[in-house]
Amino acid sequence: MTSLPGAAVTTVRIAGIRHQFSSLKGMKEDVVEFLLNLKKVRFSYSGEKAVKATLSVKSAGEVKAKDIKIPASVTIANPELVLATLNKGAKLEAEMEIEAGAGYSPAEDRIGGPIGTVPLDASFSPIQRVNYKVEETRVGRFTNFDKLILEVWTDGTITPKEATVSAAKILVSYFNQIVSPKKVEKKEAKEDVDIIGPVGKLSVEEIGLPTRVANALVKAGYETVEELVKAKKEDLVKVRNVGEKSIKIITVALVEKGVKFGE
Asked: Which keywords has UniProt assigned to this entry (predicted)?
């Protein structure tokens, strides 16, 4: 049930407000309470991209969900939900984004927007509550059967029956991966130079090796880091003027550059 898709407000900009802990002159509720009420509005929308909606109220009284101006592709399941109460002379203007999704999306995922944009935690699931119980039941003469009773409450954007059917289809798709698993082709390994990155193009004289060791490696044909990491230690030991002590120095120099033998 938690995987069922839905829609919710994900970001809000309120005119005259820089952050959620502010207050709006003439509004009975503080901004935090208004945002909590806004999160309760249940939308029906299945588009791939976020859509914008606006709220502009300049008269005293209750501000309700039905006052939100939404695109034709969006509907509100609870239009009578009270969002705020305005006093005489007060006005409330806000712009919000509505997105389709599944599950729960924390506000932290949307931090970093323009100043004044408040990210909201979004609960996309249309399911409000689920309960189940198992009772003994009789089928013909047999009494050793069980009956499963599901109780499902939704937000009105989908019926309990539709929700149950959709959830069952999701389960079937999961189990189909076991019955008929899809083959995933293994990706071919990238060329060594791609794995090593730009470091592989450095010459052995640029990685801080003693001059004697660097010269010995160049004479033996190991001119770049790429060529060096491909080499085996037992082969390097055979190089003139490169012994076990030099191998340790080379290893440390490579590690400092983020690579090692065998990459």
From this structure: DNA-directed RNA polymerase, Nucleotidyltransferase, Transcription, Transferase
